[in-house]
Amino acid sequence: MQVALFFIFATLAVAGAVNLLVQRAPINAALSLVAVMGALAVLYLLLGAEFIAFVQILVYAGAIMVLFVFVIMLLNAQPDEASHRSRVARIIGVPALVALLVEFAGFLATQFSDSPVRMGEYISSTEDLGMALFHQYLLPFEVTSVLFLVGLIGAVLLAARREDPPAAMPTAVSSSSAKTTPAELVIR
Amino acid sequence: MPNATFFLISLVKCGVVLFVLLTLVAYIQLAERKIVGRMQSRVGPTRVGPFGLLQPAADAIKFILKEDITPDSAHKFLYLLSPALSATLSMLAITVIPIGGGTVRLFGQNTPMQITDINVGLLFILGVTSLGVYGIVLAGWSSNSKYSLLGSLRGASQMVSYELALGLALIGPIILAGSLSLRHIVEAQQHYWFIVPQFLAFLIYLTAAFAETNRIPFDLPEAEGELGAGYHTEYSAMKFALFFLAEYINMITVSCVATLVFLGGWHGPVFGPALLRAILPLVWFVLKVCFFLFLYIWVRGTLPRFRYDQLMAFGWKVLVPLALGNILVTSLIVGLLA
Fold first, then answer.
1. d(C-alpha A137, C-alpha B315), whole Å
2. Do B141 and A51 touch (CB under 8 A)?
3. What residues 127-186 of chain A have any CB closer than 8 A to a CB of chain B?
4. Residue in B closest to A73 by C-alpha
5. Per the CB < 8 Å rule, is B157 touching A61?
6. Which residues are CB-neighbours of A6 under 8 A, at least 6 positions away?
7. Residues of chain B contacting A34 with CB distance shorter than 8 Å
8. B194 contacts: CB under 8 Å, gap ≥ 6
């Protein structure tokens, strides 16, 4: 039954990924990505990694992709128009893709034995994962979180609305116009 | 356990849960109309059957007989998908809820009193409810109508925001129990309920749960005074009924989680002969869940709706920092005592 489930959801994941690339309407592409993530979560589940499977659903499908869909809805994004078929893309892109695939296949063939992965062979339980993250890899974990924080603050800073010039505010008309510093003028 | 028996047992359990769930939804809705009626000096439905007890059946017949409308400009596939998605996801969350500590004997096998017992049950529920946003978002977008879109935008941002507070509030009890399994969390509350050491987390959870289920005072996505009916404005007949069903099942789910995580699940005084001993835990569980459901109706009858900016500010500036502080203090105390 495990094998049957694996093939069903592996097919679903690949089909979703192909559909994601083929679809022209952004909303369909985003939803195919959600389907891919759901199928991947089931594959994790088949390997006994319950925690990772549900975190995948919670974080990727439930939070990140919702924001994608949200933005698509807000902008009411229309189907993409076909770009001019660039010659550079054909000359460099296709051989590069082939080279990448060959390299990837070679890596898979040499680095992994061809015996199937068995359940419980890798760290998968919530407890082991916590131990690994907060003991063995504590520093990388914390550094990553700081990195996220920096990204977050940067995004807020970029998106934040500039303060209205003081002159526009009725109460500030008389007091602040005289005290404007050169730096503030530059910002305006 | 052989595969066939496993399927048979699961099928029977799903059937029982589905039956109980749908009946419960029908009668909560009747209870809501009765209780809110009483609070507003009305009597509520009394005509169909004795004391209006057959009203849910009449409502169901009405839903089936209504004309099923699909707007011309709607995105047909997504318009059809979203109510189905809402209802399916809400029912999926119920599968991991344990309703009793013991086991039941079915087809010669002992099986736990829940459809499936997984190690990370709480995480599963959070994951599935987070997917529930898609039902609302896609419904509003695919209807291709202004009010629906506004409702679903509100719904999406509200649910994503309050999900954070909801999840963070549950981390305190998880630290105390040391497990994500609902069964283990309940068993850890044998001596005292987690509502005592985690009262703040309980309040945060309760507030966020109201927002997650789009109920008054946080029912902005379907604020009828401003948006028609919000994200399901364009839906009629059974498609609308599915959204309705999803909302009430979600209410039941969050009530069950509150009972299991904060109120000690099926724990309570157990006494008397063997039969009574077997039934009492179930009775306690059901009573606690009913308490939360009553609370939902009570709040609906008494509180006005928040304004939208108040809602967002409250979620991000009050609930999330409080929940984070609670995690910090809880883990500090648990760490020091260990």
1. 32
2. no
3. none
4. B141
5. no
6. A43, A46
7. 134
8. B172, B173, B176, B177, B185, B188, B202, B261, B262, B264
Take residue B119 and report the two structure tokens written for it: 């190690």
Contact B293, B252 (CB under 8 A): yes
Residues of chain A in contact with residue B95, where contact means CB-CB under 8 angstroms, are none
Neighbours of B156 (CB within 10 A): 25
SS3 state at B47 = coil
ipTM value: 0.80
Nearest chain B alpha carbon to A41: B127
Closest approach of chain A CAs to the CA of B18, in angstroms?
24
A91: closest CA of chain B, how far (Å): 39
Q: Does A68 touch chain B (CB under 8 A)?
A: no
Residue of chain B whose Cα is closest to the Cα of A64:
B160
Contacts of A74 in chain B (CB under 8 A): 153
Closest Cα of chain B to A111: distance in Å? 32
CA dihedral sign, ordered B157, B307, B205, B301? negative
* Residue B106, strand partner residues: B109
Type of residue numbered B58? A
Torsion of CA B166, B171, B176, B177, to 10 degrees: 80
pLDDT tens digits in sequence order for chain B, 338 residues long: 677 888 888 888 889 889 999 999 999 989 999 999 999 888 888 888 888 888 888 888 988 898 888 888 888 888 889 999 999 999 998 988 988 777 777 777 777 878 888 888 899 999 898 888 888 888 888 888 888 888 888 888 888 889 889 999 999 999 998 888 888 898 888 888 888 888 999 999 999 999 888 887 888 777 777 777 778 888 888 888 898 899 999 999 999 999 999 998 888 888 888 888 888 888 899 999 999 999 999 998 888 888 888 888 998 999 999 999 999 999 999 989 87
Pairing of strands B109-112, B103-106: antiparallel
Neighbouring CB atoms inside 10 A of B34's CB total: 20
Residue contact A61–B163, C-beta within 8 A: no
State how far residue B126 is from chain A, nearest Cα, in angstroms: 7
Chain B CB contacts of A66 below 8 Å: 130, 133-134, 137, 156, 160
| C-alpha–C-alpha distance, residues B21 and A24, integer Å | 41
Count of C-beta atoms within a 10 Å radius of residue A115: 6
> How close B334 gets to chain A, by Cα (Å)?
16
Outline which parts of chain A fall under CATH 1.20.120.1200: 1-78
Determine contact, residues B201/B322, Cβ cutoff 8 Å.
no
Distance CA B129, CA B253 (A): 9
Contact list in B for residue A50 (CB cut-off 8 A) is: 118-120, 123
Query: Topology of A1-78 in CATH?
Result: Four Helix Bundle (Hemerythrin (Met), subunit A) (1.20.120)
End-to-end alpha carbon distance in chain A: 66
